Each structure stands twice: as structure tokens, then as C-alpha cells.
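anyone seen this seq b4? input:
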Amino acid sequence: LLCPCLIYGAYIFLPFDAPLLPTVSARLVYTLRCAAFATFPIVLGMIVSGISRLCSSALEPFGELHREVEIHRTYVSQSVHLFILYFFNMAVLATYLPQELLKLIPLLTGLFAISRLIFWMSYAIGRSFRAFGFSMTFLPLLAMLLWNLYGMFILEPENLLS
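predicted toks r here
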């Protein structure tokens, strides 16, 4: 319930509009530029993972990882997988959205980045707390996937492969 409320509130109250993007290629470039900001939590996780591995007191560099190192490594791995799914769904979504709804692209990007950071912090606290951050990442991704399938097969089935 929180994700739709956050997106709707940001859509209504944030004072920016998407630029005029009449072609599919312009929309994809816009999506690519927005998606670059979604990589910030992943890059930050890679940096922290490297630092924690360097500062680890392990005598075997390829041996058993400590919990602190394992948390960051798992976060980066899961974030990369979710970012790939996010990016492809966002690229398809950008081709189906009308011009007045293209403001959702940067809003969904911001939600992805914030939710991954929330997941990371809650995962470091304890494994039982990570469900909130994961659901803030996964449920908008699932909604995008369902909208994309609806757009491809119901709204414009004649343009499915074009």
C-alpha cells in the first residue's frame, strides 16, 4: 500500500514534468538516463563490499566469508539481478506510456534506488527485517511487468513485434 501512495504523492506534488518525447528512441534514451541513477545503490554496495572484504580479519582471502562481508556481497548480487529486471521492464513501459505519464519513469527510478537502500539497511539489521525493502522493490517491478503484458497483448496486439 505504501508504494502506490508514494508514487501518487510524488506524481502530484513534485514540480517537474517529463520532456516532450515523441519517438520511441527518445523515450528509450530518457529511460536509460534515468536508469543510470538507479545504479547508485549498487555501486555504493560494491564499494562497501570491497572495503569490508579488505578490512575483514580473514587470513584466507578465498575462504569462508564473515557475516559482514556476506551481507554486502549478497546485497550487490541481488541488486544487480533486480536492476536488470527493472531496466528491461522500464524500457518496455516507456514505449507504452502516454506523454503525460512519462513523469513516472524518474519516479519509479527513485523508488527503486530508495527501496534498495532500505533493503540493504534492514538486511544488515537482521534477516527478518528485509521483507519491507524487498517488497518495495519487487511489487512495483511486478506491477510494471503486468502493465507491460497488458499493453502488449490487450492494448496493442497488432504492434507486438514491431
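The chain has six helices and no strands. Residues 23-157 form a domain with the Four Helix Bundle (Hemerythrin (Met), subunit A) fold (CATH 1.20.120.550). kinda curious what u guys think
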